[in-house]
Amino acid sequence: MKADKPVECVGCNTFDVGSILDNSELEVKFDKIYPTQAEAEKALEKLVQKARDTESESDPCQIETEIIAVDGGFQVKANFVFSCQAEVVIFQLGTRAV
Question: Residue 38 and residue 28: Cα distance in Å, rounded?
Fold first, then answer.
């Protein structure tokens, strides 16, 4: 799993010297059903804000979202593509309760 060349992410101010962060995972997919549309919208708003707080200024997170009415509630589907794996980890740690 270790790359021949160390991976550097200027936006994150990180330099990988052989850890498990090899920049192979840049995408986070989110899919959850909420009982009401208001709860779904609030959760999506939190997710997008967390992504914006996490992204690097030089290479912003690419975000695709949708809320779909389904049996039992409203499904939030979101896809976040970050510029480096360190941002993915930071984002995931901050979104456990959403």
Answer: 23
- Which tens digit of pLDDT belongs to each residue from 87-98? 999 999 988 777
What is the helix (H) or strand (E) element at residue 92, kind and residue range? Answer: helix 85-94
Instruction: Report if pTM > 0.85.
Output: no
CB atoms within 10 A of CB 90: 18
In the block, tokens 């995408």 appear at 27
Residues contacting 77, CB < 8 A, separation 6+: 30, 31, 65, 66, 67, 68
Burial 23-58 (b: 16+ CB within 10 A, else e): beeeebebeeebeeeeebeebbeebeebbeebbbee
61 Cβ partners below 8 Å, 6+ apart?
51, 52, 54, 55, 80, 81, 82, 83, 87
